[in-house]
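Task: complex structure prediction.
Instruction: return structure tokens for all chains below.
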Amino acid sequence: MDFVLQSLLWKEWRERRGTFFVCLAWILCGVVYVLLYESASGCRTPVSRYGAVCLIYSLCMSVFLAMRVSLSEVTDQTISFSRTLPVSLSRVAAVRLGMAIFALIVPILLGALVLLVFLASGLLEQVPARSEQFRSGSEIVAIPGVNQVLRASLSAGGAVSLLMKVACISISQTTALFLVLCLLGARRRNEVHVGFLGAVVAFVWFILLSVRGMFPAHSFPILHDYVGILFPQSLVMFSSYSAGGVSWNDLDLADRVWLPLFLNLFLQCGLAVWFTRRYGTQNAVPSVRKWHFWKVPPLFSLVSIPFSRPVFSLMWINLRQSVPLALAGLILAGIMVMMETLGSHPNANNHWELVKYNLPGSMWVLGMLWATVVGSGVVASELAPGLGHFWMSRPIPIRRWFWFKYLIGLLAVLFVLDGTTIAVSWNSLFLPPEEKMNYGAELLSWSYIACYPALHAMMYSLTVLGVCWWKKPVRGAVMPLAVFLIGSLVMESIPSITEFDPFFVYDNLHHAEREGEFDLSRSHFPVVFGTVCVITLLTAYLASRKVQRLEV
Amino acid sequence: MSESAIRIHQVHKQFGVNVVLDDVSLDIPRGQTLALLGRNGAGKTTLIRMLLGLLKPDSGTMQVDGCDPTRDAIELRRRVGYLAEDQTMYGWMTPIELCHFLAPFYPSWNQSLADDYLERFHIPRHQRIEQLSKGQNVKLGLTLALAHEPNVVILDDPALGLDTIARKEFNRDLIEHLQAAGRTVLFSSHLLDEVEAVADAVAILDGGRIIRQSATETLRSEVKRIVLSSTGISEVSPPAGLLDVLQLDGQFIVTVDGAADFVEHLTELGIEHEVVDLCLDEIFEAFVIGRTHAWPQAGTPVVV
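Output:
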């Protein structure tokens, strides 16, 4: 190994080792969770559970690492120094990419190795993946009092083989997402933009998990078998089940795994080479305005009039900032639902109704993500040194500035994301039960109206606190999501507190509602969602306190 | 109301063990343009941030246009025009939208004056701020700082990052629109050749202390460079106010604050000498990086 490469590797290791240990800790905590949950519940699905842990890990860490790899040198203003070194930027980029991929995938491999020991020794069992023979995941677990056929466990060798396939798919889809984001990042000038773009791409990536299912094997055999070349995440699909306070995932593994993965490797090599050529070529300041023609002209400026009171000024600026952000989330949810509807009901003649009625099915999860995007977007840029100083030197009490920003952002989340969803699918609330079955399982319900806006508000509020605390938009947005998801996983894995998991409460309420019994005093709703509201208010208060420290 | 537009009395500020401002006192009379000079890290921006109530002093008092920044920061910001170095504004807004947005926060905002400045500074009213040049951005910042007709204007190195011509143009605008209106201006900069044309007075901040405050012309008349031969310099003691001593080709070049007395003393002793006028840049250099140890009779304390 030449000295230049050694130096570059040393530098990258010093920069990435913190992230590597975070990744390792994340995956090892995931493995411990899998071992404890499987031992306690006896679901016999450690591989699928580990696959789900890796999926969440890859969506979060790929975005974070892509931001750092593609633009940290721009943020830290060291790119000009790197350019002056007697080594090509392509080589620097290749080492950056290599070390980041190492930090991303080695923890997945190590986690799989730990799990492999337990599977090989027979301490844990794994059921076979879903197939023609095993069509429903509900047959995996015996529910007390219900006589069901159990799916027999795989041999140790079979379980290890299944684990290897799932681990390789996880690694492949993680690096593929990471490379796509790095490439996008190389065309941007700001890490925050990559973070927001990454959140959108990661969400689409997650939705595309089921892309193989959109091409049934009997209708599109080639696409069904080889769509994994482009979207390796679709080679394994997860279906969630829960019963008797226990939840598990069933695996739907593609018939062909190794060939698509092998071909995907070539694509990834191409992306990596492309990235090394693009790295550092984007100027820090836009010089050529060739793309500006598509920008909407500042029409509002032509009709602008001076505001008579500070209140109107603050309302105007905060609406201009938060509503477009929230609208982007609504549009994204609409596109997702359209894709899903067209895929699952290609011949239906009521597509518009299907889209309207299925919007809540996408919005509950996208709302969780997008509330963090809005929360981060409305606060982060104004806490940065430049704009922060602009605000601080104006005659505006910071308390008033913060609460206007917070409340208008919150209203944007609730009205644009949830309000619009509820309004467009309102009619579905009053459909007869038998007709509801024609539209799908995730229609609007009173339970949805009672639960999800409150959860979205909490995510928004947590993000505002995170951003005010760290003054880092992406960290502020990712941490609440990670904390919430990990908290939910922990609650799910401890039987005595599972029923206090907000998702569990919603599921129970929704289930009861479908049976004609909607009662918000049941299923621990008052306690759980009362706590959610308290957390929302408390985090908003803490954020305001944190921001006030900026003022004398 | 006090006679001084800005009064700073024995202000002390430290971050951890790092003393940034040490017993700083400064008075700026109404209508004066004072240039606050100092090297990077001298404490200029810290002092300005304190004047705006963005930082609290550890001790000492301050008054800006009759307001105490530590108690009436919001009222103070209504009265003062402020332009920060490299100030960021909303890129998605247009200049006119930004003016309309800020207008209600300043009771004395004069929209027709703002419109007038936008026109005079050739700032396109309906172009997004992200598409303005650096020079136009600084001028827009100046427009915002002046449109509410403040009595006191504080400019923190506003021309930083502009090219030479843009800086000259900016200074020309500054003279035309600030000094003509009789406002009090505190102007922080380290581009001394340009400050010289603008400032009525200068204050030099070094190592957290104000080491000299004076009218610009007074400073130029009091600080001189004197060229002496090596035999001539050995016949005199170092004068009070000695700032710099440089030995070059058998001659000694000394810079003295209060040069008139020293020159008179040299004349009395019949020592041959030559007096050279200095520009502000050279005076500043003598104050902050001048060394006196090359004086042949070293050891006598030098009082500045």
